[in-house]
Amino acid sequence: MGLRLLLMGTGEFALPAFQKLMESGHPIAGLVTQPDRTGKGHHQHVNPLKELALQRSVPVLQPAQVNAPESLDELRRLNADLFVVAAYGQILSADLLSIPRLGAINLHGSLLPKYRGAAPVQYAVWKGEAESGVTIFQIEPRLDAGPMLARISTPIGPKETSGQLHDRLAKLAVPATVQVIHQLEQGITQPLLQTGSEVTRAPRLKKEAGEIRWNETSREVDCRIRAMQPWPMPYTFLHLPGRKPQRLLVLDVDLVDTTSSDTLVATSPSGTQVVTKTERGQPAGRPGDLLVTQNQLLVRTGNGVVKINTLQPAGKRIMPAEDFLRGTPVTGGRFGSETEQETPASS
């Protein structure tokens, strides 16, 4: 017969696992998801979980406050054995968690106890982790702190963005979710307590986190650029003498080895062709300074240089840096924040 499941989720991270559960033979009591949102121009945002549930005639609940007394009464009437939660978007109260006889489990996109919070996938990429994964745990009132029931790891690719990792983790969670539910049904789970000393936080990202800090190391710049895709997107401003700052997205960079010779031949903001290096082998100059060499766009960072591969000027298409340079001479320019002092014109 299987367990009677109530699914709770809003984000697309939940979609592969919830789709599998709807095909698993377990009775689905319903889907609880966030209320429909209306964007600019009153366009309706698509909720793929709601669409999936309606296609399969699964009841859909969209309470604005899931912990409100009337919401709890509605959940009790569904008589579920287990709540399965993934990327839902509301904190669940102790009263809510006490409703199902087997409690509630959560599918979380990190290797807990690292990166508890709303943005675990982004933080793993941002902080340069070598691996990430999915943890399925029993939900307790404390944020992402319950005992772990399954933990699956995977390497983070050197070019992988948060969006790409998110989609991989969502698929990685599917077999583990099915296995954990089977173990709960059989009463054979082996919970593992989280170690408090290893706890790190991953709070919800703000838009300003997408601004590239060129004074960070080349590695940190690369990690931020990959972490901020698909939201809030990594951006900077191009400053050219006599022009207003131009906002653009930087979507892909390579780290440049600047230690192989004593000089780096390039066109610098001062117009010279040979850039002298410091005693540590790094190009002299300020972070954010632009260098152009052999149709390549290079940017100084806090400890070296990165090569821009792909970018998108505001209001234009995504393009290779080489195409951008053909239409926008950048000699005398630099990348930085919108409000930083304009680079003086070359004399």
Reconstruct the topology from this structure.
Elements: E1 5-9, H1 15-22, E2 28-32, H2 48-55, E3 60-61, H3 69-78, E4 82-86, H4 94-97, E5 104-108, H5 120-126, E6 131-138, E7 148-155, H6 162-186, H7 218-227, E8 235-239, E9 246-256, E10 263-265, E11 274-276, E12 290-293, E13 296-300, E14 305-313, E15 319-320, H8 321-327, E16 334-336
Parallel strand pairs: 1-2, 1-4, 2-3, 4-5
Antiparallel strand pairs: 5-6, 6-7, 8-9, 8-16, 9-14, 10-11, 12-13, 13-14, 14-15
Helix pairs in contact: 1-6, 5-6, 5-7
Can you put this structure into words, describing what you see?
This protein is of the alpha+beta class and 347 residues long. The chain has two domains: 5-198, Rossmann fold; 207-336, Roll (Methionyl-tRNA Fmet Formyltransferase, Chain A, domain 2). Helices cover 23% and strands 24% of the residues. It has eight helices and 16 strands. A seven-stranded mixed β-sheet has the order 3-2-1-4-5-6-7. Helix 1 (15-22) runs parallel beside helix 6, helix 5 (120-126) crosses helix 6 (162-186) and helix 5 runs antiparallel to helix 7. The radius of gyration is 25 Å and the shape is elongated. Residues 265-281 and 343-347 have low confidence and may be disordered.
